[in-house]
Design brief:
Layout lengths: L15 H10 L1 H12 L11 E5 L1 H4 L53 E5 L1 H8 L17 E11 L9 H35 L5 H20 L10 E10 L2 E9 L6 H21 L3 E8 L3 E4 L1 H6 L9 H14 L5 E9 L8 H12 L5 E7 L6 H7 L8 E6 L5 H8 L6
Parallel strand pairs: 5-6, 5-8, 8-9, 9-10
Antiparallel strand pairs: 1-2, 3-4, 6-7
Length: 421
C-alpha cells in the first residue's frame, strides 16, 4: 500500500498566495464592500469576518483580440478541410456573435463574485490609513505603536512572505549534496558500459547488470525532489515598538429620553468601531466612558453599552465631569487627550451656550482632538450651531452628522483619517 505524506506547511490553505495577491489587486473594491457591509451588521457582530461581494464587471480584465471582419489569412489548428489560400464563406450574423450568461429581462446583468475574508483581514481593511490626530510624544511614554520591520529569514511562515531566491538557493545546495555521489557513480557505470560496448566480444550478462545499475542510479537521482519544505525560506518580520506617548480617549454618550433606541444603537456602533480601532492600532490607551442625561456619570464598558438608564438632557454635565477627570488623573503635559461625543443634538435650550463656553475655555486647550457626532435625521439642533462657531478658532475640533446607518463608517473614517506628515 502506498502512503502519501503531505509535508507542505500550507497544506490546508494552498491558495493563500493567490488570495493575498487578489486582495492587494482589488483592495479598493474590497474596502468598498467592507464599508457597505458594516452598516448591515448587528451592534455585537462588528468584530468578525465578512463575506464580501465584488461586481463581476470590476474583476473582468481587458484583453487584446482580433477585430471582427476584415481580410485575414489563417489556418486553424486541427483544420482538415481547407488549405492556405482557400476562400471560405463569411460567417452569418455580423460581428456580435452569441452572448454568454443567462437571459436577463433588463437587457444587461452581471454575476457578482463573493468570497470570505477573515477577521484579521476585515479589521485591517476597516482601519487602514487611520490614526489618532495630533498624537505627540510626551515626557513619559506608555503608549506603544508597532511597525513591522524586516528581521532576516526563517524556516516557516505564510506563503505570502516566501523568499523565492533563498528557497531556490537552498534547493540547489540540497540537490547537489544529495546527488553528487550518485552522479559520480553514474558516470563511472556509463564509462564501463561504453568500454564494454567497444569490445569485439561483449559479455551480455555484464552488460545487462550495468544497464540495470545505471537505471537504478538514475531512478535514485530522479527521486530527489526539486524543492523540499526544508529548502523554503520566509522573510521574517518583527513588530518594532515606536514610542509615541500616553493617550486617553473620553467617550461621551447622550442617553436622554430624546435618544430613541435606533439612535442609541447608531451611537453604540460608532463607539464599538472606535474601541476596536484603538485596541487594534495602539497599546495601553486608556478609555473613559461617560453617560449623561441631566446628570453625568463615569461608568465601565458594560454599563456604557448596556445600561437602560435615561432622563432629561443637560450636556454640560458631561463636559464638567470630563474636565474634573482630566484635572484629577490626566496631566495634559504627560497625556494625549482625545474625546468623542455622540448626541442627537437635543439639549436644554439654556445649556447649549454654556457647553460651547466650557469647550472653548476649559477643554479644547487641553485636548489634542475633540470630535462631536450628531445622530439625527432632522435638521441641526442648537448644540450643533454653538459648536460650529468654535471651528474657526480651534483646529483640534471636528463635527460630523450621522443621519442613517450607512453614514457611520464614512464619518468615522473622516474623523480619524491619517494626517499627512
Amino acid at each position: 500500500m502506498a502512503h502519501f505524506i503531505d509535508r507542505r506547511l500550507n497544506g490546508k490553505n494552498k491558495s493563500a498566495v493567490n488570495r493575498q495577491r487578489f486582495i492587494r489587486r482589488y483592495k479598493q473594491q474590497i474596502k468598498k464592500a467592507v464599508a457597505d457591509a458594516i452598516s448591515e451588521r448587528s451592534v455585537t457582530d462588528i468584530n468578525s469576518g465578512e463575506n464580501v461581494t465584488i461586481p463581476n464587471k470590476d474583476i473582468t480584465e481587458p484583453f487584446f483580440h482580433q477585430g471582427k471582419g476584415g481580410r485575414r489569412q489563417i489556418v486553424h489548428p486541427g483544420n482538415d478541410q481547407f488549405s492556405e489560400g482557400d476562400r471560405i464563406a463569411r460567417p452569418q450574423g455580423g460581428a456580435q456573435g452569441p452572448g454568454q450568461g443567462d437571459a436577463s429581462a433588463d437587457g444587461e446583468g452581471s454575476d457578482d463574485f463573493v468570497f470570505s475574508i477573515s477577521k484579521e483581514e476585515y479589521l485591517d481593511l476597516l482601519f487602514e490609513d487611520l490614526a489618532l490626530p495630533n498624537l505627540q510624544k510626551n515626557q513619559l511614554d506608555k503608549l506603544v505603536q508597532y511597525k513591522s520591520v524586516r528581521a532576516g529569514f526563517r524556516a516557516d511562515g505564510v506563503p505570502s512572505t516566501i523568499d523565492i531566491v533563498r528557497s531556490l538557493r537552498g534547493s540547489l545546495a540540497r540537490r547537489v549534496a544529495l546527488t553528487a555521489s550518485k552522479k559520480a557513480t553514474l558516470a563511472e557505470l556509463e564509462q564501463q558500459l561504453s568500454d564494454l560496448e567497444q569490445e569485439p566480444v561483449q559479455d551480455q550478462q555484464l552488460r545487462l547488470q550495468l544497464l540495470e545499475q545505471i537505471a537504478t542510479v538514475k531512478a535514485r537521482i530522479a527521486a530527489v525532489p526539486f524543492i523540499d519544505s526544508f529548502d523554503l525560506r520566509f522573510r521574517n518580520y518583527q513588530k518594532k515598538p515606536e514610542p509615541t506617548g500616553k493617550a486617553v480617549m473620553f467617550c461621551l454618550m447622550d442617553v436622554s429620553g430624546s435618544m430613541d433606541q435606533p439612535t442609541k444603537d447608531m451611537a453604540k456602533r460608532f463607539y464599538i468601531l472606535l474601541y476596536l480601532f484603538l485596541s487594534r492600532s495602539y497599546k495601553n490607551v486608556d478609555v473613559v466612558y461617560i453617560r449623561h442625561h441631566t446628570q453625568a456619570k463615569e461608568v465601565d464598558e458594560q454599563e456604557f453599552f448596556y445600561s437602560q438608564e435615561t432622563g432629561g438632557t443637560i450636556v454640560s454635565s458631561a463636559l464638567r465631569l470630563m474636565h474634573e477627570i482630566i484635572t484629577d488623573r490626566y496631566d495634559p503635559t504627560l497625556w494625549n487627550i482625545y474625546a468623542a461625543q455622540a448626541s442627537d443634538g437635543d439639549n436644554w435650550t439654556d445649556d447649549s451656550a454654556p457647553c460651547a463656553a466650557l469647550l472653548a475655555n476649559k477643554l479644547l486647550p487641553l485636548v489634542r482632538y475633540y470630535a462631536y457626532i450628531e445622530i439625527s435625521p432632522r435638521a441641526h439642533q442648537s448644540l450643533w450651531h454653538e459648536y460650529e462657531k468654535l471651528l474657526t478658532q480651534h483646529d483640534n475640533m471636528a463635527i460630523e452628522h450621522i443621519r442613517e446607518l450607512a453614514d457611520i463608517y464614512p464619518v468615522f473614517r473622516q474623523l480619524f483619517k491619517k494626517q499627512a506628515a
